[in-house]
Amino acid sequence: MPFIHIPQPWQLPERQVTSEAAFFNRRRFLRTLVGAGIAGAALPLIGCQRQSRVDAPTFDTNPLSATPNPTFSQVDRPTTNEQLAATYNNFYEFGGTKQIWQNAQALPTEDWKVEVTGLVNQPRTFDLETLQREFPLEERLYRFRCVEAWAMVVPWIGFPMNAILKAVDPKANAKFVHFTSYYDRRIMKGPTFPPSQFLPFPYTEGLRIEEMANDLAFFAVGVYGHTLPKQHGAPVRAVIPWKYGFKGAKSIVKIEFVETQPATFWNTISPGEYKFESNVDPEVSHPRWSQAKERLIGPNSEFDWEEVPTLKYNGYGEFVASLYA
Ligand code: MTE
What is the DSSP secondary-structure string of 119-140? Predict the structure, then answer.
């Protein structure tokens, strides 16, 4: 997979920040294509055009019961409308806009397996039923903050990542964990531009092992009282609420314990903009926009939003600040 290096960020005013797809420097990228002999192809450029949104779509989900975790049953903001959260997503395998929920319905989730491997004493491959039987499900209401400066509040259902740690018993030299998302280029067409073959799919993310062990780090198998709809990353995805949303890999098929910091999707594409650590921090600007405030989306549409101050660690400092002392 070619490496896309973007030395000079494309200057985008904050009001236009809509998607990571827009982060690519189109002219530089076109030059790369020309250099690679792909000149002449009529390449469509990414536009910020919106596809029409169908009101109140229904999704292929099943009810899922879980015990509400009292520590995470309230936040200082209203819960985001479910339809809104399920129709405003990032899932680059299915396109570069927020309106990918229809495309994402092509994700094949039957007979899902999650392989837990690498530097562990007890490697395991879990099917979904085993995951849900072995690890008691709880519901947690979490603030969710995207690096693009929009935010939501989402009731996830799942289990803490540290349950997996206990089950597989990492070796002493396991320092990082690497998550890999499902990828099949035949059904995941990717963004219009740049073409998928120039992006480092499969989507991957990672954490330090101490971050994974923190009680907040979560694997979600459900949301809003039912199984995850595909666009949210069915059947299992990561949710790390004190970090920017891109750290939460969707539709995970592999969890690998490794000794050195693994390469990850956005950090490979633009290391100066998407750091491996990527904790939510109002004082650390993205190179092209401030992170001091965020657009709290909702209640009814993506165009209804309230601007609020960004909270350090997304408001979860009491749980995680000690990791970075
Ligand atoms: N995981 C995969 N596999 N592919 C993606 O494009 N996008 C990330 C993250 N996980 C992404 C992904 C980003 S940028 C965000 S903000 C969140 O998913 C969005 O999650 P949501 O659509 O459920 O709100």
Answer: SBSS-EEEEHHHHHHHS--EEE
Closest CA to ligand 1's atom 13: 246
CB-count burial class (<10 Å; 0-12, 13-18, 19+) for 87:
buried
Residue 58 buriedness (CB in 10 A; 0-12 / 13-18 / 19+): exposed
Is the Cβ–Cβ distance between 253 and 180 less than 8 Å? yes
3-state secondary structure of 66: coil
- Shortest-distance atom of ligand 1 to CA 148: 16
Supply the pLDDT for residue 56: 67
The topology under which CATH files domain 67-142+157-276+315-324 is Sulfite Oxidase; Chain A, domain 2 (3.90.420)
Instruction: List strand residue ranges (DSSP E) for 119-270, in order.
Output: 124-127, 138-145, 150-160, 176-181, 204-208, 218-223, 226-227, 237-239, 252-258
Question: Which of 61, 81, 250 should be mutated for ligand 1, with most atoms under 8 A from CB?
Answer: 250
Tell me: the pLDDT tens digits for 44-59? 222 233 344 445 678 8
Q: Comparing 41 with 77, which gets the higher pLDDT?
A: 77
Instruction: Report the atom number in ligand 1 closest to the C-alpha of 266.
Output: 14
Residue scoring higher pLDDT (301 or 182):
182
Structure tokens at 286: 């993205």
Nearest to 167 by CA among 133, 205, 211, 206: 133
- The Cα 10–Cα 23 span in angstroms is 7
pTM: predicted TM-score of the whole model, two decimal places: 0.87
List C-alpha distances in Å: 50 to 19, 171, 280.
12, 48, 27
- What are the tens digits of pLDDT across the range 216-243? 999 999 999 999 999 999 999 999 999 9
User: How is the chain split into domains, by residue range?
Assistant: 67-142+157-276+315-324
